[in-house]
Amino acid sequence: MTSKMLNLPPVAAYHLRQASLSELGDAASDIATASSLAGRTSHPEWFAGHVERFDQYRALLDAIGWEDPEPVEVDLAKHARAFFAGLEVLLETERDLARVSGEKDGGRERRRTAERHIEQIEACLESALVVIGI
Q1: What's the pTM?
Q2: Read out DSSP for 55-111?
């Protein structure tokens, strides 16, 4: 497997960590749900996809570090799936925040922050596409 390293500045590394932690939590929640179902001991396939997803995000966090705001290198040959999936989910969340933030009660500032995050995440995704040759 050829290494495809992407250097991320602290702000991009922050977004990647936040996305990865969120997706790790979602996978853990899905594992917890499956573990509460009747018949769980007879159906390991109920866990397989959730455990695989959990392991992908845990491995990505292990590779980039769990603490902010250090710059990091990400080997996209190993972590592309979690990298892109996590950041795409975070990007949609930020777009939703920008779309629904009103003018009252700090909404304008929330919208500006979301718009700044959108630009940062899109730039990170574009850089990754260049690294993998797309």
Answers
A1: 0.80
A2: HHHHHHHHHH-SSSS--EEEEHHHHHHHHHHHHHHHHHHHHHHHHH--SSTTHHHHH
